[in-house]
Amino acid sequence: MSGSTTFVPKNPVLKWFESRLPIIGLVHSSFVAFPNPRNLNYFWTFGGILAFMLVAQIVTGVVLAMHYTPESTLAFASVEHIMRDVNFGWLLRYMHANGASMFFIAVYIHIARGLYYGSYKAPREILWILGVIIFLLMMATAFMGYVLPWGQMSFWGAKVITSLFSAIPLVGDAITVWLWGGYSVGNATLNRFFALHYLLPFMIAGLVVLHIWALHVPGSNNPLGVEVKSKKDTLPFHPYFTVKDGLAVVCFMLFFSYFVFYVPNYLGHADNYIEANPLVTPAHIVPEWYFLPYYAMLRAVPNKLGGVCALFGSILLLAFLPWLDTSRIRSANFRPVYRVFLWVWFAAVAGLGYCGSQEPVGGIVTASQILTFWYFFHLLVVLPLLGFFETPLKLPATITDAVLSTTRGSSGAMVAARTTASPSVDG
Amino acid sequence: MRLELVTRNGKTIMSPLRIFGAPALLAAGFLAVAAPARAQEAAPAPLPPKQSWSFAGPFGRYDQAQLQRGYQVYREVCSNCHSMHFVSFRNLSQAGGPSFSEGQVKALAETFKVQDGPNDAGDMFERPGRPSDPFPSPFPNEQAARAANGGALPPDMSVLAKARDIEFGGLWFMLQPFSQYSEQGVDYIHAVLNGYHDNPPDGFKLPDGKYYNDYYPGHAISMPKPLSDGQVTYTDGSPQTVEQYSHDIAAFLMWAAEPKLVERKRMGLTVVIFLAVFIGLLYAIKKRIWAGIHDDTGVTTAAQPGE
């Protein structure tokens, strides 16, 4: 990864090692000397928080896998065995189950930060797309993990979601049977979900390495959206950002702990403490909270294939954001109109989440349809047009100038229109 | 447990056609969610009244005497129909639970006959129970349980207190985690045990073999009123009323479902205090390292550090 590698080990053994595999220099340049914009706010700590959550999920998950049995008649009992008889098994399981929710809370804030501050724009498109792929893998991992306890919601959630693939014309049914490993969700499904649930986190870890690599080429975006111009605009990663990220991670751990120790079942569903039964459908099949907005979109479209397309399209479309957003100004702080639309869009996603948790009757259906429409309208129509009609606010020439220019009057770089956007955004 | 879910919602969605027809599977998901609206239009169940529980809140602890009474109610009443196969006799002597002595548990286990085997001759045999045995189930299999209960399957009680929820509606769900309210299961169980009526209200058609209950979804429950005043004889002077029995059994079921609750909350307090202090220290260090460098604003007033 980039950054100035000035690191030369003094210890002769390390020197010998470094000349053969320069990994210490790599770590040093990436996480010690790496220059970060000095004006990053606490929303930029969620990358570190997510790295912590990934490690926490892998560590607790590997230990849980030592005690869990991926067999349809034994899975539920083995989870109870973990809760009752394994030393601190209850702690591992509650950490892992709540950890999934925490992972999603952190990733949603991380994504929202990227949207607000325009972190997806050039030259960070690959970084953003890698993030979207990581998000998709996270969703797959979380979904398969939720199936493993083999409760009623596990089973019926798996049934509803895997059945989505049957909406694909011609080959849909064949694909569904192939996914299930049989003609219904059963032991074969549980087995393969367990195998994949164990595999995917390591694929995520690999993509995270690429994500950080792609981040370290252009460096971090920042709340002004103005590229770093000189060394004066930056601070070395260590100690400034190690201590800041560290503080944020520990604060997040406190939030996480509150759920694990005091309300460990709040984010789950009571029906999942009833063992899976293929003959009895639960009254109300709902996915985990972090899938509710997509679930609402799925149900909002009356046509099955259409619903499935809305579901997957809503996420895939995010990968095209760098090209859908035509404005060259990154930070929403300098885009008064975009900022309002973005908050409306955030509210629409939250509203979809609420609709997804409710029974789809009456007003809930209409609301889901309006909000789904708005979700796509914002991405496909508002964003592309806004770049042409919006007049952005004045953009400071450099990060260091940011406040100096406002205190000394309007001597800072002025941005009249998007097309003449200050050269600062081109980095 | 299984049939109960069906009847709880007063609808039949067991049609094998709908469940096994692959193309209709998605529809099954949709219909399952949509069904309650079209299902039997019974009067909506009132919210179970919130009870006071010793194990609620951040410092909650199980009341040992209450768990012992609750076990007595389970053994004398509930266990005639309800299994509890994830709980073993040895659990009854674990710290934080009913805390019977090991001698008591051993003697208790021996009063049960347990099938074991095969022995060297290949025969199954019966022996007295041991503390390591799980609670014996009242019926050998699901079919036997249904046959004895008019087609209904009494749910296993091991995690029942965590498998029942209350829908409060509105935006209460946003506040609920911070209220630490997590006694929905026991509040519901307590309410059901106290919610029986001899005669359903006018206009309510109670199916044969069902009983009317205020709190049971759909109101028609397959379990007859299980508890009545004076039915279980307490030796510790506690009131022998349905109200008291239902509190005791619900508390016992909570323990059965969450035996590590006390350990969890105790550890939680340590963890939260530790992290809070750690955050304070880290914050002080962060302030010191960043002193003279205005973060979040983009101002530099200090000399470039590290140069």
Automatic annotation (TrEMBL), chain A:
GO terms for molecular function: metal ion binding; oxidoreductase activity; quinol-cytochrome-c reductase activity. One of its GO terms (biological process) is respiratory electron transport chain. CDD domains: cytochrome_b_C, Cytochrome_b_N. Residues 13-224 form the Cytochrome b/b6 N-terminal region profile domain. A ubiquinone binds at H216. Binds 2 heme groups non-covalently. Belongs to the cytochrome b family. The main subunits of complex b-c1 are: cytochrome b, cytochrome c1 and the Rieske protein. This is Cytochrome b. It comes from Lichenifustis flavocetrariae.
